[in-house]
Write a sequence for this structure.
């Protein structure tokens, strides 16, 4: 584990590579009637702090449904809490982390920030994040209340660096009408397939044979990150799968398990079970032109709003030895300041804990809450769909911890796109991916 370096203003010069994250994609966040415009391309919500309240600034990258639900949660907290007032600055996701890094390095950081688990390797070793253990007790934070798999993504060298809010994993959506027509929908409304590569291929083939020619058995884009997510999930389902780096940080992705998983993903494209030239797979499913879609939980809210779309959702298909899926988490962290304000830190943690404890409100956006008691609450159980995939939190697999993982992923995706275009096979793709990893990481 890399040792935590001293926080320095000169770190502003460090380049921060952006990791693709569909859940945070899009433009500025959603404003409220009381909000005022902040910096260019950002939205400031929360209004002026009433006299006597501790005011804290809170930066998020949320837009769309995520932005709306977060704003509602902030407004609810502000109306109920007598001592703390939260002011949100929702930056465009595309440059959120660049702005955040610059703000921390120039000692103009907010009091609380949203930090994806996948981003922590870029922030924690640089000294940009305040460890929470010394303050957790005073803020009544009990780490035992969180899902251990999600919580582990926020722990470095046995120190807690953020409060996890959720996990957002990829899951499988399906059109019940098409699956019923193909004879692969059970009486319980769940898909029927054998848990093996052959079984899942047979499942999709039956769908292909039963639905109209313009309906995709499985909708996945042939560009961008989606197939990489799917590969990562299948790869981690294999015994001894999931290796990415050796102990000394060199590439280890070119191995038999990775090849097995990638050849399977490629077979879905080559066979036409994933049709060619799919760009917007989510819209295809919304338009009832796809029977199955593997994408993130953040699509649940959008699909609920489509009239006449009779759909279901289950965890990522298990076709190998153990359940696994790709995922990331929104976490809540305290940025480093040149001089800390204990009152603001305590207020920020109080608010962060409130967000996590009220995760059923955040689950409306489709995310899986991090707090176990929220998952067990009647309010969460009464929500449609969410309980059907909530177990994904127990077997979500995060990207490896590397400060350049975002750039490495971007470069690997380019190799995946060549494979999906038929320009190279899976074996060549992994060989080139391995070379990309070492070149990008400087090994």
């Amino acid at each position: 584990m890399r040792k935590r370096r001293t926080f320095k203003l000169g770190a502003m010069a460090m380049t921060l590579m952006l990791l693709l994250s569909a859940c945070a994609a899009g433009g500025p966040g959603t404003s409220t009637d009381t909000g005022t415009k902040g910096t260019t391309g950002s939205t400031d919500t929360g209004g002026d702090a009433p006299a006597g309240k501790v005011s804290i600034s809170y930066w998020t990258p949320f837009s769309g449904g995520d932005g709306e639900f977060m704003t509602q949660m902030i407004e609810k907290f502000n109306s109920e809490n007598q001592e703390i007032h939260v002011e949100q600055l929702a930056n465009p996701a595309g440059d959120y982390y660049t702005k955040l890094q610059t703000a921390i390095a120039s000692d103009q950081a907010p009091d609380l920030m949203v930090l994806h688990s996948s981003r922590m390797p870029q922030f924690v070793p640089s000294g940009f994040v305040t460890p929470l253990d010394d303050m957790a007790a005073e803020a009544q934070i009990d780490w035992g209340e969180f899902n251990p798999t999600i919580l582990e993504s926020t722990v470095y060298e046995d120190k807690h660096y953020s409060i996890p809010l959720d996990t957002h994993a990829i899951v499988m959506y399906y059109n019940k009408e098409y699956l019923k027509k193909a004879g692969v929908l059970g009486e319980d409304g769940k898909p029927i397939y054998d848990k093996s590569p052959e079984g899942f291929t047979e499942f999709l083939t039956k769908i292909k044979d039963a639905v109209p020619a313009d309906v995709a058995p499985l909708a996945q884009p042939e560009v961008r990150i989606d197939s990489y997510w799917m590969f990562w999930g299948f790869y981690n389902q294999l015994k001894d799968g999931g290796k990415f780096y050796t102990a000394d940080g060199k590439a280890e992705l070119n191995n038999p398990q990775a090849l097995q998983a990638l050849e399977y993903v490629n077979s879905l494209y080559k066979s036409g079970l994933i049709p060619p030239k799919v760009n917007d797979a989510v819209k295809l499913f919304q338009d009832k032109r796809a029977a199955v879609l593997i994408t993130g939980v953040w699509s649940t809210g959008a699909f609920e709003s489509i009239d006449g779309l009779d759909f279901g959702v289950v965890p990522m298909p298990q076709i190998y030895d153990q359940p696994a899926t790709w995922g990331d988490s929104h976490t809540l962290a305290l940025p480093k300041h040149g001089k800390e304000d204990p009152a603001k830190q305590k207020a920020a943690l109080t608010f962060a804990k409130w967000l996590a404890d009220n995760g059923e409100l955040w689950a409306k956006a489709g995310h899986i809450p991090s707090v176990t008691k929220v998952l067990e609450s009647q309010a969460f159980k009464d929500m449609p769909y969410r309980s059907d995939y909530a177990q994904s939190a127990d077997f979500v697999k995060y990207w490896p911890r590397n400060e350049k993982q975002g750039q490495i992923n971007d470069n690997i995706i380019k190799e995946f796109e060549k494979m999906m275009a038929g320009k190279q096979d899976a074996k060549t793709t992994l060989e080139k991916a391995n070379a990309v990893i070492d070149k990008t990481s400087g090994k």
About this structure: The first strand starts at residue 36 and ends at 37. The mean pLDDT is 90.
